[in-house]
Amino acid sequence: MKGLGYSCSEDGDLEFRKLGSGTFGVVYLHTGLPGVVKKCRTINGCDTLRNEHNQLHSIHQALSASGNAILAPAPLEFYTIDSDFWEDITLPANDVSRTCAYGMSRVYAPPPALRKKIIDLFCPAHLRNNPSIKPSMIHVARILLGRAISNPGRVAPQRFFDTYNFPLTRDRVELLGIDVENTAVEMGRLLAQMHMKAKNDARDIEIVLGANVTDNSSKPDEPRIWVIDFNQVAPFNCTEEEIPRLVEAFYANEAYFPRPRPSDELYNLFSQAYIAECAKIDDVAVVLGRLFIHALEREQLARDQVN
Predict the structure, then answer these.
(1) What positions does the domain DUF3669 occupy (predicted)?
(2) Are 28 and 37 in contact, with CB atoms under 8 Å apart?
(3) Alpha-carbon distance 193 to 185, whole Å?
């Protein structure tokens, strides 16, 4: 199969298994292969998927060149509805439509020891015998430094524990032994690279904890933070007039980044890193970056006054 770094076996097509899905598309993997394939659900989504593939190219290149600790998957080949790709694979019976798809490197679940630690620390004792809750889960965990502390003062017993996209608020990140201050710094660097180098609004991205498996090294026993999911990312033309759109996208996203309150030390680390990263790009990025940070803080103040 061209583009994914492997070829079909002699005894038949490759069978793909669903790794994740949303309203727009489905991500498939084959357990014996290194990459994944993202497929849009309908042919009407092909233009959006093509844009996502293009954005991923720019984002991956910017983050790799900057030395950012947070990386994006490596984009591979794009497959149109007429591609030979569809002749080489077998999709699940409930998804036989030809649409469009593209390959990319896989973001692996956190290391086994860290998965076990998530369950040991955060799963209530009375739920741990549930067979669906086990360290062999293949899911990443979301890092949400801007979300409130998990279940403060909860009295009622917890009835469910779901490892799928497990939310790691800043208190949980600290309990796992992950450097939360450095994470805030790298998030600031990430967003600056996406805005000013890759030139997009970073809308609806996800920041997740996975394993340190990259193009250049394979250290599955070490954690690494990744940025994924770019189907809603839109171009940013690097003008002052479009700063409000960056602010709107910031608040439309899940609270991955610290909330823009100058009283919050994590936010200060995030915003300082954002401006410092802009300074590595060019003078225009610095001007726009400062306008963005000031606009974020004004918007947060207005939201806090309402609430």
Answers:
(1) 225-281
(2) yes
(3) 13
Read off the amino acid at residue 246.
Answer: L
Query: Rounded distance, CA 189 to CA 62, Å?
Result: 11
Helix axes 243-252, 283-306, angle to 10 degrees: 50
- pLDDT tens track for 248-291: 999 999 999 999 999 999 999 999 999 999 999 999 999 999 99
Residue type, 272: Q
Distance, CA of 173 to CA of 179 (rounded, Å):
8
Lowest mean pLDDT among 67-76, 103-112, 118-127, 244-253: 118-127
Q: Where are the domains of the chain?
A: 1-106, 108-307
List residues bridging with 78 in a β-sheet.
102
Please give the helix or strand (H or E) that residue 222 lies within, else none. strand 218-228
Instruction: Give the number of other CB atoms < 10 A from CB of residue 35.
Output: 19
- The two tokens of residue 277 are 């990263």
The tokens describing 153, both together, are 């003062």
Q: Which CATH class is domain 1-106?
A: alpha beta
